[in-house]
Amino acid sequence: MAKRKPARFSAAKAVKANARERVGQPKPSRILPGAPPTGRQAKHKPRLEDLLREEG
Fold first, then answer.
1. What is the pLDDT of residue 22?
2. Contact, 15 vs 23, CB < 8 A?
3. Cα 2–chain centre separation
4. Distance between CA atoms of 6 and 53, rounded to whole angstroms?
5. Nearest 10 degrees: CA dihedral of 46, 39, 36, 32?
6. How far is the C-alpha of 34 from the C-alpha of 42, rounded, in Å?
7. Would the pLDDT of 1 be above 80?
8. Tell me: the pLDDT tens digits for 6-55?
9. Is 56's pLDDT higher than 70?
């Protein structure tokens, strides 16, 4: 079996790895409450009539 070729150097990956060592792993993202629901309602823009009803 042939030897594995070392990965190509990436400056961006090196900078990110260095930052993780110094600062620590970033917190995982989470969904904010109040986001539009996924489903049929989220696929369509609200009508002008509906928007005017909500305001007044």
1. 95
2. no
3. 39
4. 63
5. -170
6. 12
7. yes
8. 889 999 999 999 999 999 988 888 877 876 666 665 667 778 888 888 87
9. no
List helix spans (H) across 1-56: 11-22, 40-43, 48-55
Alpha-carbon 22 to chain mean position? 23
How far apart, in whole angstroms, are the C-alpha atoms of residue 48 and residue 10? 50
Contact present, 47 and 54 (Cβ < 8 Å):
no
30's tokens:
């989470």
- In the block, tokens 């989470």 appear at 30
Task: Work out whether the CA dihedral 17, 18, 19, 24 comes out positive or negative.
Answer: positive
Q: Which residue is listed with tokens 């042939």?
A: 2
